[in-house]
Design a protein that fits this description.
By secondary structure, the chain is mainly alpha-helical. The protein is built from six helices and no strands.
Length: 119
């Protein structure tokens, strides 16, 4: 993506400047635990002191972040197109919002988080 280092999973998803822009945007939007080197972010989500519904939303956000960074990487490789980080962040937010709103409609488990997700 950035052509500054050899691509590996750690660089692509977390250390690349492009990925960091995405994660920083996500962190401005949703309270994810800070990433610690040597630990999996999902382990940090699981061990955090938040409610189960907050953890489930955090998992969804984390998964969407990984998915869309991979999607953008494939656009660069196969179509020579690189979406701006703000556009990718918008796609991630929309994806998560739609998923959680649908799940809340069925279960009403996420009511207290809806306002935060809609920011």
């Amino acid at each position: 993506m950035c052509h500054n280092e050899e691509e590996d999973d750690q660089h692509l998803f977390f250390n690349c400047h492009y990925a960091q822009e995405i994660w920083n945007g996500i962190l401005d939007w949703w309270d994810l635990p800070p990433f610690q080197a040597g630990h999996h972010w999902m382990d940090s989500i699981l061990s955090g002191g938040s409610t189960k519904s907050h953890k489930l939303i955090s998992y969804a956000i984390f998964a969407a972040g990984l998915y869309y960074i991979w999607w953008a990487r494939n656009l660069v490789i196969f179509q020579n197109k690189k979406p701006p980080s703000h556009q990718l962040l918008h796609l991630i937010k929309e994806h998560v919002r739609n998923r959680i709103l649908f799940l809340d409609f069925a279960s009403h488990r996420y009511q207290k988080h809806i306002d935060r997700l809609l920011l």
